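Figure 3 (text version): structure tokens given as input.
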């Protein structure tokens, strides 16, 4: 019996236009009526998730910034900011990566130091709450995640610049154009385990969905781990199952209906 469902957003629940499937709302209401807990786990910030899911925010858990920030009913469940003494070095390294820009992700907004149209357009896909500052190293707010917007491709272009940090930090591609850096104990899998422990839910009672490398740890903590049909190859290899349909065809919702309501 499924007691907890956790899904990624972009490339997973949302279609390629970043829209919520129309039948999602009816399905989640049925889940709530059955007492099944539902969570969103995304590289997006909390405020971006809230914009999309305002009608059910008091009923769900949000795992944002790749597991760095968990919120339920407007209360913080967990917050894991990056070590402050490492941020300047991460920013300095980012400035050396060609065709890539560093982004500091805070709880209330994002910070950038370049208003390049390519960067702004990429951010606008997710939200409009960002601030241009002269020097990112001077930002005093707690940083949940440092991301690089990489127009050449995160895996091949920016990842090699940060590979040597992997013994101290979590480095994961959050999409083809995004490299995400968080604390080593901040990932979606660890966040799912927090919810499992809170509600005495086992991996056998957990259903998760993802498509990219920031979903990798999440695939490890659920027996019912589903890679999207359109997922990155390593996620397809790691998950226990693959959806029959992709994110544009409502693949997540078909699995939920089959496993929870059949």
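Below: residues designed for each position.
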């Amino acid at each position: 019996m499924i007691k907890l469902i956790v899904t990624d957003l972009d490339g997973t629940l949302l279609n390629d236009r970043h829209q919520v499937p129309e039948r999602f709302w009816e399905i989640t209401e049925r889940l709530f009526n059955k007492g099944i807990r539902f969570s969103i786990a995304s590289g997006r910030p909390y405020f971006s998730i809230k914009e999309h899911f305002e009608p059910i925010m008091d009923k769900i858990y949000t795992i944002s910034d790749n597991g760095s920030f968990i919120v339920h009913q407007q209360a913080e469940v967990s917050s894991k900011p990056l070590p402050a003494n490492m941020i300047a070095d991460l920013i300095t390294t980012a400035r050396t990566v060609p065709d890539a820009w560093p982004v500091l992700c805070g709880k209330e907004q994002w910070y950038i130091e370049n208003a390049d149209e390519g960067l702004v357009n990429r951010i606008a896909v997710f939200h409009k709450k960002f601030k241009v500052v002269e020097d990112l190293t001077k930002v005093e707010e707690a940083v949940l995640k440092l991301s690089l917007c990489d127009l050449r491709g995160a895996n091949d272009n920016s990842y090699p610049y940060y590979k040597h940090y992997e013994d101290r930090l979590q480095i994961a591609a959050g999409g083809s154009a995004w490299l995400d850096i968080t604390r080593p104990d901040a990932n979606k899998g660890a966040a799912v385990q927090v919810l499992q422990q809170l509600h005495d839910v086992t991996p056998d009672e957990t259903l998760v969905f993802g498509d990219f490398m920031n979903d990798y740890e999440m695939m490890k903590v659920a027996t019912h781990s589903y890679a999207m049909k359109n997922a990155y190859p390593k996620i397809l290899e790691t998950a226990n199952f693959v959806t029959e349909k992709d994110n544009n065809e409502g693949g997540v919702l078909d699995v939920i209906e089959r496993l929870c309501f059949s």
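The chain has a mean pLDDT of 95.
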